[in-house]
Amino acid sequence: MVGWLPMFRTTSPEAGVTRFRKTFAATAAVLAVVGAMVISLTLYQVQKDHGQTLHVIGDSDVADRVDVEVVVIQIDAAVQELTVQLVPSPRGALADEFGRFRSDATIYTSGMKPEPIRIKAGDLISAAEVRIAMGGGGMITDYPFDKYRAHIDVAADAGDHAVPVTIGLFSLDAFFKITPQVDDEQHGDGIGTTVTVARSTASLTFALFVIVLMLGLALAAATAAFYVLAGRRGLIWPANTLMAAVLFAMIPLRNAVPGAPPIGSIIDFGSFFIAETVVALSLICTVLVGYRHEVVKEREDA
Predict the structure, then answer these.
(1) pLDDT of residue 146
(2) Using CB atoms within 10 A as the burial measure, which of 11, 34, 174, 230 is most buried?
(3) Which contiguous run of DSSP H or E holds residue 177?
């Protein structure tokens, strides 16, 4: 009779707690990954929306005016230059039936070489490339927190008199974001705006990630060195190899940040120099002290 009795498996409370902990840890890991993806995609959307924003400066309600599309195609922080393309378009009575200037027009800009853009009546309108100086006290060594200011001023003449101007500002440089001070008031015969230039959200995020990563690698190397030295373990070649690999891997890691900041930037004094020093000292101390322990062990064994 005993042989056919069913066998019941009992579960201990400890096993139930362990299963709950594993389930909770797995759920928390999945939620953490999903949350990180949501935050990352949100940052991407913010940068995308900011980059695709058309900033209009001037009074667009004026019927007879000249719209000047100013497209930022490149921002060079090293030489502090802003390269833009200007495309003027006549509106209202200033345009003919084909959308071209009805009379001869001249566009004046605040470029580094302020040569006016002259357009004959009825001619096709082509883009003109203009370089504009940046300032505002910003320096590239402040990377990734460097900021600059540029003044963009545009005026236009059609025929023999000045005409109202409206600026449409747009940026194609993905490494920077621009924030103009929009002013709807005409200044004299033209319109102007002061543009603040800063690193884009993606560039700033990646630079901060590299800074934290380099400090984390330095902490890992220091932890490995403490483990070897505190335990008097001698020469532990895997630990030495790890520290040597980290030491030389941080150089291309630092150079991978967008914008190619020069040596001596904030990213160097705030992270790279510190991390390289910690890893180098950890490696040197581990090898020298470990060698001394190995010599002592050999003498004791002899």
Answers:
(1) 92
(2) 174
(3) strand 176-180
What integer pLDDT is reported at residue 3 of this predicted model? 52
Beta-carbon count within 10 A of 197 CB? 23
Residue by residue, DSSP assigns 101-150 as BSS-EEEEE--SS---EEE-TTPPP--EEEEEEEETT--GGGTTS-EEEE
The tokens describing 239, both together, are 């630990």
What is the rounded CA–CA span in Å between residue 266 and residue 93? 54
> Contact at 8 Å (CB) between 267 and 257?
yes
Region 189-214 average pLDDT: 90
Mapped onto helix, strand or coil, the DSSP state of residue 166 is strand
Q: How far is CA 146 from CA 80, 142, 165, in A?
A: 11, 5, 31
Q: Is the pLDDT of residue 69 over 90?
A: yes
Q: SS3 of 296, please?
A: helix
Selection from 169, 198, 163 nearest residue 91 by Cα: 163
224 residue type, one letter = A
Q: How far apart are CA 203 and CA 145, in angstroms?
A: 10
Which of 163, 93, 73, 85 has the alpha carbon at shortest distance from 125?
A: 85
Whole-number Å distance between alpha carbons of 130 and 108: 11
Average pLDDT over the chain reads 86
Q: Which residues pair with 148 in a beta bridge?
A: 197
The answer to whether 89 and 66 have CB atoms below 8 angstroms apart is yes
* b/e code 220-246 from CB counts within 10 Å (16+ = b): bbbebbeebbeeeebebeebbebbeeb
Nearest of 224, 210, 281, 211 to residue 247 by alpha carbon: 281
